[in-house]
Amino acid sequence: MKIRTARLEEIPEIMKIYDTARRFMQEHENPTQWKAGYPSRELVERDCKQGWLYVCEEQETLAGVFMFCTEPDATYQKIYEGKWIQEGAYGTMHRMASSGQIKGVASFCLDWCFKQCGNVRGDTHEDNYVMQRVFEKNGFQRCGIIHVEDGTPRIAYQRIK
Length: 161
Hints:
Low-confidence stretches: none
Number of helices: 4
Shape: globular
Largest sheet: 7 strands, mixed
Strand order of the largest sheet: 1-2-3-4-5-7-6
Structural class: alpha+beta
């Protein structure tokens, strides 16, 4: 597998991967995290234009997609019921989704993110047990609770060197 920046012409295929992920979440006790078509095509296109959208490829087939950037995330400024392991510069991973065709995509993507900066934060819905296990399996520690833009809580994770 390899990671590279996504291209605008790949957005239709990327949106299919997000559709697959939404169905997977609904079938695995997480029916509300990505409701109403989240992430929107507009958000995905914005991430792509900013150079923050990445794809995971296996033999030229898109196996996964995620957003990664090293700019501060506004939703991570306040953390409740805990604290970040380390302050300072960090990378943020959001909107990870797999096509469901290849095993290990999420772990591969998280490892790639960690290699970029050695201090990575992410978050997930309390009902997303699959992603919670993925974070924890890959050395991320639960740090507390953050609130995303719509005010709903998420479990915050961080991994440092």
